[in-house]
């Protein structure tokens, strides 16, 4: 990470950018990432071959975003100039369309390689995500060449841990949990469905531990009769359940308008993860 980025981080000036592609990021992408993987094949000026051809990649981009213009409308000097001029001036969602497109083309290039000696897609993903993190862009590229919101490192470890724990009788809860994470970190973000799915994951776990329960609320009532559960923690879990049931667009139809905010969805997921681990650890003992 460059000095200025470290300085901003040390001062707490690190608000994640979700709905923009700043010019500095576009330039950093063009000069620091794209040039490693896209170039004009057969050029005498190229010191080494690049996996993707500039003009072919640009034409694929124009087709993807359904642009009427041809590459030469952006720059008459070179295919590289045409492509980079387009990337600097396009709308920010289209810039990220291109970022994903290059990743997808590199994945295909890797698959088509006879011996898989070089994983271009991995190199691209790594260099891109370093740039995005340094520029406080809230997106990161996954192994499928799809941009998702960056998951905090501490949360990322929990995501992996919880998925491994939600197996066997908790398999249904795992599906709900995966949906909750996807809704919160995909684009566009769906806060309401993320909250619904994490509460559904909790309900699935609770019903697996308390087979007589028909709902999470019913399971909490039955857990209160079991001394191994903390009543105070069950109170907090019940409040999360009530919140999900009374918030518009989450679990039940409501007359009120509005929708949950992103911080509320993030808090619900973090709390849900903690409660899933708690319920499995405490409720699963001796089972």
Can you offer a commentary on this structure?
30% of the residues are buried. The model has no long low-confidence stretch (mean pLDDT 85). The protein has helices spanning 3-10, 23-32, 54-65, 79-89, 92-112, 120-134, 153-165, 171-185, 191-209, 216-223, 231-246, 262-283, and strands at residues 38-39, 52-53, 139-141, 147-149. It folds into two domains: 3-147, no CATH class; 153-283, Up-down Bundle (Four Helix Bundle (Hemerythrin (Met), subunit A)). It is elongated. By secondary structure, it is mainly alpha-helical. The protein contains twelve helices and four strands, in the order H-H-E-E-H-H-H-H-E-E-H-H-H-H-H-H. The strands form two sheets. It has a two-stranded parallel sheet. It has a two-stranded antiparallel sheet with strand order 3-4.
List the helices and strands and how they pair.
Layout: H1 3-10, H2 23-32, E1 38-39, E2 52-53, H3 54-65, H4 79-89, H5 92-112, H6 120-134, E3 139-141, E4 147-149, H7 153-165, H8 171-185, H9 191-209, H10 216-223, H11 231-246, H12 262-283
Parallel strand pairs: 1-2
Antiparallel strand pairs: 3-4
Helix pairs in contact: 2-6, 3-5, 5-6, 7-12, 8-9, 9-10, 9-12, 10-11
């Amino acid at each position: 990470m460059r000095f200025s980025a470290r300085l901003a981080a040390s001062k707490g000036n690190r608000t994640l950018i979700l709905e923009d592609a700043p010019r500095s990021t576009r330039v950093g992408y063009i000069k620091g990432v794209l040039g490693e993987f896209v170039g004009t094949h057969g050029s005498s000026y190229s010191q080494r071959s690049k996996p993707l051809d500039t003009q072919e990649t640009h034409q694929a981009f124009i087709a993807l975003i359904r642009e009427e213009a041809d590459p030469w409308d952006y720059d008459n000097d070179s295919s590289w100039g045409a492509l980079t001029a387009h990337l600097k001036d396009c709308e920010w969602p289209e810039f990220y369309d291109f970022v994903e497109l290059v990743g997808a083309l590199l994945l295909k290039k890797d698959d088509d390689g006879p011996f898989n000696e070089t994983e271009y897609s991995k190199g691209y993903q790594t260099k891109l995500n370093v740039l995005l993190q340094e520029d406080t862009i809230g997106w990161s590229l996954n192994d499928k060449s799809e941009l998702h919101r960056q998951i905090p490192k501490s949360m990322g470890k929990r995501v992996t841990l919880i998925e491994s724990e939600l197996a066997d009788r908790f398999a249904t809860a795992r599906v709900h949990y995966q949906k909750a994470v996807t809704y919160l970190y995909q684009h566009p973000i769906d806060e309401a469905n993320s909250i619904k799915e994490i509460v559904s994951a909790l309900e699935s776990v609770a019903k697996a531990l308390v087979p007589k329960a028909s709902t999470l609320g019913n399971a909490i009532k039955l857990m209160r009769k079991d001394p191994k559960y903390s009543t105070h923690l069950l109170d907090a879990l019940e409040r999360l359940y009530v919140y999900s049931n009374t918030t518009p667009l989450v679990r039940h139809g409501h007359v009120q308008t509005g929708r949950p905010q992103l911080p509320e969805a993030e808090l619900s997921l973090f709390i849900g993860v903690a409660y899933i681990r708690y319920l499995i650890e405490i409720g699963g003992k001796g089972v």
